[in-house]
Hints:
Layout: H1 3-15, H2 31-46, H3 57-67, H4 94-114, E1 120-122, E2 126-128, H5 130-147
Antiparallel strand pairs: 1-2
Helix pairs in contact: 1-4, 1-5, 2-4, 2-5
Amino acid sequence: MDKKKFLKEEFTTLLASLKPEQKGKWGKMNAQQMVEHMSYAFRVANGRHSEKAMYTPEITQQSYNFMMTEKPFRENTPNQLLPDEPMACRQKNMADALTELESEINHFFKVYSENPLLRTINPFFGNLNFEEQVQLLHKHATHHARQFGLI
């Protein structure tokens, strides 16, 4: 599978079929909350939002090693940066949420094309370059696509 193509061209098309209030097969987020959550993930990856590392170097390395495999995230994988209950939607509708996500995805590819040596901190997986970010974002995107029955 071409992970870059999936992220750049296919992911938001898949998401466009969802209804904003639609629930996934697991978890508490509705579809629009998940789309906004993915915008946040791309903002971290593209450098528009920064987070500090969450773990010791040893735990970060273990997380990184898992990230680089093709093993999927487990259902209900916890995220210590998120509250127990999903955050309220920031966008007024799903179309706006998808537009925001497309913008963050496009910015991700733009900043790395302009600065191929760029590395950004992911709070769980460490200081990642472009290829590592693509690996993580693809794993994250397919996790949520499975959650909502899109793949």
